[in-house]
Amino acid sequence: MINKKTILVLGAGASMDYGFPSGEQLLQDIINILNGPLLHEDKDAVRMLIAAVTCRYFETKKINKTNICSQYNSVKEFEQKFIRSSTTSIDDFISKIPEDKQELKIIGKILIILSISRLENEQRLIYEHETLEPSHRYYKELGIEKTDPPITIVSLVRGWYNYLWRKIYEGEDIPRNLKALTIITFNYDRSIEQYLYTSLLGMAQRPEPEAREVLNENLFVHHVYGKLGKLPWQDGINAINNYEPFQCAELLDKIAQFRQKNPSVELAYTNIKRWSPYINLIDKICSIVDEIRTYTESKIETAALEDVKNRLSLCDDLFFLGFGYHPENLKWFEPKNLASNRLVDLAGTTYGIGKQDVINIKSRLIKLFLGQELPSINNNIRPNYSNLTIKGFFEEVKPIG
């Protein structure tokens, strides 16, 4: 059960149990989309697709940036600058793009969408396939000989979402436990929402309309930098996007084949717009672009942000999970400090973070949220659990609830 008002602040590491990349890995994924082979081995076809989506986006906005040759060159410009930037995050890179280079910002957002979308697959939240090893108990039970071909088995994924879900369904009052929980995520993927929805349909045996209602009325998730659209079961009609990868392979094959016969960039784009249903795919990606936000864009006040402020001011436990404690991300909280008279328990994972960095992070968090200085004698400060996963942190250091 969740007996306290609990806030979970999620960074990139929070989705890694389910196959999503860290911030550093996302940079690598974007580079390998631009250079192949993550989306297609023909990187020229990938550039053409991104240029086509960029043009289509500006067309829908009635902005005079729809010259396909120009946008094709912009994709190459983005690629060159991005690879040489030595940036620590895609958000950093996009936020530094000057306003007169709006097309580069759009290209960056398209690349985020393509990178994250390819990993959104409900199966990956629940189970995965693995090759049966001789050490596994099935190996002997099935009487497998060494000469047999490899056998693939199903392995359940047991990341920290599973731990959270157990806390939610304990005590059988799922709506109440959900109401006690607030999730603030700096990630673009919708994995935690979809996991809870899938689990509610399965474990709790709720029919789809009831599961939809329970989550929409009780689960609060705020994506600071946006997300890949609303899931079909979520309230709202804008940018509805299924939890599945964008199916770009056939379109990329078609672009690659067409470009081999017709090198003209302009001719390729003219034909892409005639290829149904591929233009629908491009329009779908375009509809998500405005859902992705930069540092500056995330500061726009909305009703959701007012709700976040209220929840922060009333919470009992505040966890930072898989979070890199990037200064720009922590700045997002500065106008939303916790009430100084509340006894709030701050905790967070520090996987792979050095001891001195941990001390600095603790000092900043205590000052930011509690308005206090870190004591010079740190006897009461938790040690650095830099070797623990999120699930391990909950099980060995501080549980939810």
Topology summary:
Blueprint: E1 6-10, H1 23-34, H2 43-60, H3 68-84, H4 90-95, H5 102-117, H6 122-126, E2 127-131, H7 137-141, E3 152-156, H8 160-169, H9 174-179, E4 181-185, H10 191-202, H11 208-218, E5 220-223, H12 249-261, H13 265-272, H14 278-289, H15 303-314, E6 317-321, H16 327-331, E7 345-348, H17 355-370, H18 390-396
Largest β-sheet summary: 5 strands, parallel
What is the count of structural domains?
A: 3
User: Might you state the CATH topology name of the largest domain?
Assistant: Rossmann fold
Identify the strand order in the major beta sheet: 5-4-1-6-7
Structural class: alpha/beta
Tell me, what's the shape? Answer: globular
Give me the number of helical elements. Answer: 18
Spatial separation of the terminal alpha carbons:
6 Å
Roughly what is the average pLDDT, rounded to an integer? Answer: 87
Q: Compute the CA-based radius of gyration.
A: 23 Å
CATH architecture of the largest domain: 3-Layer(aba) Sandwich
- Strand percent estimate: 5-15%
Short overview:
With 401 residues, the protein is an alpha/beta fold. It is 48% helix and 8% strand.
Structure keywords:
401 residues; alpha/beta; Rossmann fold; 48% helix
Verbal overview:
With 401 residues, the protein is α/β, with parallel strands linked by helices. The protein has 3 domains: 6-19 and 158-241 and 301-396, Rossmann fold; 35-119 and 245-289, no CATH class; 122-156, no CATH class. It is 48% helix and 8% strand. The protein contains 18 helices and 7 strands. The protein has a 5-stranded parallel beta sheet. A two-stranded antiparallel ribbon has the order 2-3. Helix 2 packs across helix 3, helix 2 packs across helix 5 (102-117) and helix 2 packs across helix 12. The chain is globular. The N and C termini lie close together (6 Å). Mean pLDDT is 87; it is low at 377-381.
